[in-house]
Amino acid sequence: MTTHYVDLTVVPDSETGAPQLLGALHDRLHVALVQHQLEGIGISFPGYSIQPRTLGAILRLHGTEASLSRLLGTDWLKALRDHVRVTTIAAAPAQSRHRTVRRKQFKTSAERLRRRRMRRKSETAEQAAKAIPSSVERTPDLPYLHIRSRSTGQPFCLFIALGPLSTDPVPGDFNSYGLSGTATVPWF
User: Fold this and answer.
1) How many CB atoms lie within 10 A of CB 184?
2) With contact defined as beta carbons under 8 Å apart, do 184 and 174 qualify?
3) What is the pLDDT of residue 151?
4) pLDDT tens digit string along 9-68?
5) Residue 8: CB partners within 8 Å, gap ≥ 6?
6) Which regions form coiled coils (predicted)?
7) Contact at 8 Å (CB) between 24 and 8?
């Protein structure tokens, strides 16, 4: 159950903006969650907005007081200390509503899907174009983190979607990105 939270605020400078710092911060968090096998820590973004599309400058970590203390007791923020302000661990407001914070994936490029199909099925460009029309493309309107895959090294956009608000918390585990389609975090 996510009873406590801590806010990590990125502090941009003339060379690095808030979105880049937030991506780097989340990338470090992802590595720390994997290394320390912390499945009870979820994330949220208090500055989340669709119009304008932004996650804001705060990454909020949710969990038990013990799990957050365990994470903060490690050296995972070492390289970002000059660009991140960390609050103390606090109890989430008792009357908070709850929601899921999850990843949303999109089929964003018909051309990329066609190239993939050609490799996998040994098809020609014409065959792949027939199988995958341009109409499959979607233009995402959700805020995202720009991060790099640990397994392939490729950069990608991690789109963040919010579930509906609820009065009741739903316990559960979070993935190595701190996201879940079922477990909720307090939303305040």
Assistant:
1) 25
2) no
3) 78
4) 999 999 999 999 999 999 999 999 999 999 999 999 999 999 999 999 999 999 999 999
5) 25, 58, 59, 60, 61, 77, 84, 85, 86, 87
6) none
7) no
**Token pair for 27:** 């990338």
Per-residue pLDDT reduced to its tens digit, 104-144:
987 667 888 888 899 999 999 999 989 988 877 766 889 99
* Domain 4-100+168-187 architecture: 2-Layer Sandwich (3.30)
Q: Determine whether 146 is an active site residue.
A: no
* Contact by Cβ (8 Å): 157, 23: no
Give residue limits of the domains in the chain.
4-100+168-187
Contacts of 90 (CB under 8 A, 6+ apart): 4, 5, 6
Instruction: Single out the catalytic residue among 4, 26, 30, 62.
Output: 30
Predicted pLDDT of residue 82: 92
CB 85 within 8 A of CB 31: no
pLDDT of residue 149: 80
Q: Burial code of 47-69, b = ≥16 C-beta within 10 A, e = fewer? A: bbeeeeebbbbbbbbbbeeebbe
pLDDT computed for residue 108 by the predictor:
65
Beta bridge partners of 186: 98
What pTM was estimated for this model as a whole?
A: 0.85
